[in-house]
Amino acid sequence: MMEHAEHSPAAIREKAAGAVNCQSVTLPSGLTVLCRTMPGYSSVHAMYATNFGSVVREFTLNGKRIQLPAGTAHFLEHKMFESEQGDAFDLYAKTGAAANAFTSYDRTCYIFTATGMTDENLDILLNMVGHPWFTKETIAKEQGIIGQEIKMYDDSPDWRLLTALFRCLYKSHPIRDDIAGTTQSIAELTPELLYACTDAFYRPGNMVLSVAGNITLDQAVEACRRNGVYDAVDPPQVETIFPQEADTVQHKETTFTMPVNKPCFALGYKEAAINRGDTRMEVIADLLPDLICGGLTNLYRKLYDESLVNPEFSGDYLSTEGACVIAFTGESETPREVAQMVRDEIARLRQNGVDPELFPFRTWARLQKELLYSSPELLTHGDAQGDLSLRQALAEYLEEYRGVRCGPHQLVVGAGLEYLLGLLAPLLPGPAAVENPGYPRARQVLENNGISCCCLPVDEDGLSIRALSESGAAVCYVTPSHQFPTGVTMPAGRRAELLHWAARRPGQRYIIEDDYDSEFRFDTRPLPSLQGMAGADGPVVYLSTCSRSLAPSIRIAYMVLPEQLLPAWHAKYALYSGTVSRFEQQTLARFITGGYFTRHLARERVAYKARRDALTKALREAFAPEELHLTGLHTGLHLLAELRDPPPDDALRAAAEAEGVRLSLLSDYDLTGGGAALGGTLVLGYGSLADESCASVGETLKRVCTAAWESSVRV
Predict the structure, then answer these.
(1) Which residues are catalytic?
(2) Do 69 and 151 have their domain in common?
(3) Is residue 630 part of a domain?
(4) CA–CA distances in Å: residue 129 to residues 48, 63, 106, 192, 584
(5) pTM (2 d.p.)
(6) For residue 507, what are the domain limits?
(7) Taking a C-beta distance cutoff of 8 angstroms, is the pair 539, 551 a contact?
């Protein structure tokens, strides 16, 4: 089949290069050089990559057949830094550059970042890769070093899990083997084998030099000329060989044991290999995991909300020569249940297609694509507090919609509330008070970071101020907008009391305001935040997240620090690296400033209100008024259903399990371990509830409650 010129790989590369204002040239040697000159930047980033990874295990070089042991490409990556003149890392240290390298299944890349001596650093990079040096002695030394690295991989549950998955799926393909190989396989390496690899795959026509920053294309090309990779050369005849692989999987299942906090699992699908350059199939394979269980799907929300998986549960795909895998991995106490739910969702998608979600996929994807092509500098480390543009966008949004008074310098962006709370804890003065019933993770994070916690009761107006004053606490963690899990909204009077409690001891008392579910108030505008009432230098730390309003997988949370805590934060954390992808940060910034975020929230509120109404209607039809009392209806994504004359909670749990229903009870959130006083109240979340399922929820819960009543022994 003839390929249209505009769809050829070369045309696609040229178009992509043009989109990012990237210059490209192919030298007479066959080496491709990419350059993005970035005015105003002081640093230079360079990557020298070869199309040679761990799955290349057999090839011919000028007609000679060569077989490689597992781990060859990775071993070679290590050895390329060593020459007769010394270690390349030592040379980089003299120029002030930071250097690294990595090996994947299908490529090996060598990297440096520098703020000066660009020509010298390019010479180091091109010379070390272009002039390999191997001896039996140096190979033996490196075998010991990499052997230790392999042992480290063996201690990694995630890495062992992935390798085990590939060995289940494939019988012959080298993807079965660890990228680093084994201590036994790398012991087979010789100088002759390594030189054969460099001759075959470290030739200019099989490599790309990419540079960005304070550098020009002419400068990069001249470096190539100086280091002997400019002029035309006769390339060797190279053909890679891959074993024939059956369509069936090698094993349906395997298990192994090692010390972990929670069981890890992986579910994989062996797909037809994608031909190199088939962009359409690569995009489809990339989209499929997100369509099945991405953070924006009903399946993910159900799994996460019911605590069946950890937040890092995700799907991904891997495509390399001769192999393609779609895999779902995470932690779960019930991995078989999760795996079956994933299979069921795949079957549903095959039959019904993809459900439209509330989240604007197209807008988010378009913004990310624009950033990918226009801002490759986002691949670098960002500010420990988060990208300035996102902090600016958040500050403006919070002022307008939540009454928060702050500047961008007060905001800290991080990967989840728990992470930010862990950073905050060491900055706080002393013991903390938390709500009971309340959010167990907040208490755990605080205690894990050395802050003792006392659990204080919640009444119809929120946290008891009297109990707080008598507790001796110096810190108070509250969810005033929508108390979790009771759903109570703290009124203005109680908020003023709480602020007065903190103000009585300036600098010695702080309030942590978790603004949980503030965006989802259906009948009236939300009350102003505690932080807004206190002011920019008040005693309130404001916490919020995008996980509820966007998706659990978009792990972008943020906190607003009082001015008085900023010096302590900078002293302790200024050297930290950001924990959120800069691409995600910049996408969210554009999502907010472009007005998409507020429109998205408006659509969500309409949809969630309709879902709430359908759920409450179903409950009121299934239960008599004297049997069930509903509260927490005006805000948030859950409500409480209090049973009159309730059966014991244990009976409710048993009946729910028999019905195949996961039931959440208010007593589950009693942080004191009692829960008897909170019995008989159901916590019903509807954020991930399918609209078509609302009508049946009432009858299902009625059957559960009836069975619990009947099974209970009453005196």
Answers:
(1) 77
(2) yes
(3) yes
(4) 9, 24, 18, 17, 34
(5) 0.56
(6) 372-594
(7) no
